[in-house]
Amino acid sequence: MRISRIDGRYRLVSGDTAADIAEASGGAFAPDGFDVYERWAELAAWAPSVPASAYRPFDPARLDAPVALPRQVFAIGLNYRDHAAEANLAEPEEPLVFTKFPTCVTGPVAAIDLPSDHVDWEVELVVVIGARAHRVAAADAWAHVAGLTVGQDLSERVVQLAGPAPQFGFGKSFPGFGPIGPAVVTPDELGDPANLAIECALGDEVLQKGTTADLIFPVPELIARLSAVCPLLPGDLVFTGTPAGVGGSRKPPRFLPRGATLVSRIEGIGELRNALR
């Protein structure tokens, strides 16, 4: 199952067509309500009954973030082996957790206003929670996942690193610094969700290229570690980390230019295309 938001309304997606969930359900689900994730198991059981006639072509330029208002947005630092290596840091023994403010979340084709000349890129696999998770064992973690999507953890490095201690959440939460999409895809659609090709490009130039199999703490382990401390709620996002190739680790450092398009892709899920201005 694939879920997107188009013109602010949640839709089931099949190829280049989509079915409006509120219309197809006769109003059982709200068109723009959070009950899509609060009632994820119910939605997943109902979705196969939607007839082909309910699906209509849609314009990809009208895609919104597939989660409208996440209550919590978690992120994990230094979670790919090759990224730890490029930073000349040891692989962490515990997940390095920070948060992004929910107001930074935007859609897969939204334009992003760069607040400075020091904005870095970080393509990431993003987990969307589909059932409340508290003190969940790793072996049971996938049962609490609605699906996976593509994300960018954009970072203003001067703000992030200013002060006597880094302020990760602050430097990574400017408006537009959390684009996600184009859809939330259930794990059964992805073959092996633990081994997906992931890449980031600036126009046609590939900046990052890796696989989610390189995660130090894979998705089930992250859910177990996070939920041991605080409950994860339906619709919450977990940015799982980025592979090697970020601009801040290059010599000399390199950052995003205005006027280009940042493209972020994950195998089986799709891509973000965000114009930078």
UniProtKB/TrEMBL annotation:
- Superkingdom is Bacteria
Which positions fall inside the Fumarylacetoacetase-like C-terminal domain?
Answer: 73-276
Q: What keywords appear on the UniProt entry?
A: Hydrolase, Metal-binding
Q: Which Pfam families match?
A: FAA_hydrolase
An example Gene Ontology biological process: small molecule metabolic process
Q: Name one GO molecular function term.
A: hydrolase activity
Q: What family does the entry list?
A: Belongs to the FAH family.
Q: What is this protein called?
A: 2-keto-4-pentenoate hydratase/2-oxohepta-3-ene-1,7-dioic acid hydratase (Catechol pathway)
